[in-house]
Prior knowledge:
It is a single chain. The strands form three sheets. Strands 1-2-7-8-9 form a five-stranded antiparallel beta sheet, with helices on one face. A two-stranded parallel ribbon has the order 3-4. The protein has a two-stranded parallel ribbon with strand order 5-6. The chain starts with 11 loop residues before the first helix and ends with a strand. By secondary structure, it is α/β, with parallel strands linked by helices. The protein is elongated, with a radius of gyration of 32 Å. It is built from eight helices and nine strands.
Amino acid sequence: MRRTERKQRPRPWRQDGVALLSVMFILVLLTTMAVYMVEGDHMMLSRASNQRTLEQGIQLAVGSERWAMRVLQRDLVDGDTDHLGEDWNRLGTPVEVDDGNLRTTAMDLQGRFNLNNLNRRGDDVWYAAFKRLLRLLEIDEGVAEAVVDWIDSDEQRTHSDGAEDLEYLLFDPPYRAANRPMADLGEMLLVSGVDEEILSRLAPFVTVIPDARGTRINVNTCPTLLFQIFGDEMTAADAEALAAMRAEQGFESVEAFLASNPLAGEPQQVAEPLVTLSSDYFLVTSEVKIGDMNLATDSTIKRDSARRTVSVVSRAWGFL
């Protein structure tokens, strides 16, 4: 007798379960795609908003720079000397602009010691003055030799405290001496013997003017301590006396400064080559705040007294 086999039909509830899983999988897939699309759109909008805010901040900073340049140019026409009582030194009041806040300041770079003046050692007046500054700040005088070697064009050490490629190539990581004028003050951290602590002590009294050497120090705008580098016998009391004599309007002439009582005992040939009452280089700082963005620019400005022009030497951008 032949045995007949019946095929077992799949139960309906199993088919329904497979269909439900398929639907759920598709829903999850579509939801995930939708989330990614929304997040992508949000990132694009956020990026566009940030770009728009940055461009707005840059335009405000450039406008701030131009405003300060006009103030400096007007001052160039109005007088032959520069002092702390002038309009450029009164900048700094925050201004509300559009959706942001703008603050512009100007600083006389020639009220500082320009490190690019150190192009040689020995009898050079700038070298001797820098050594006096190092002593005042209790910094190893060997730093002067290292700075000279960093700037001069040759590859020969000027002194046992100096450093050239042979020394710098032993550093970790190794690098070479620049053998050219410094581009900014931060470059000092590459100079042998200089660390952040030493630079922080030097910073209030020195500067780097990229395209200039031999820029004299404006005694109408310099920090009080710098008066002491104009002679070997200058004391802190002498410096304070000179600052009081200068007041806000400054000395009327270099001759009047050199003839003042605190300098009476100093040879004029020591101080005279170092000083001036007028300035060609200024640092204009523009700080812009828009929403969560804080943008700052530092612009080195050069004034040409003969041509009565003002131009930008360099510009650095950064975020606060």
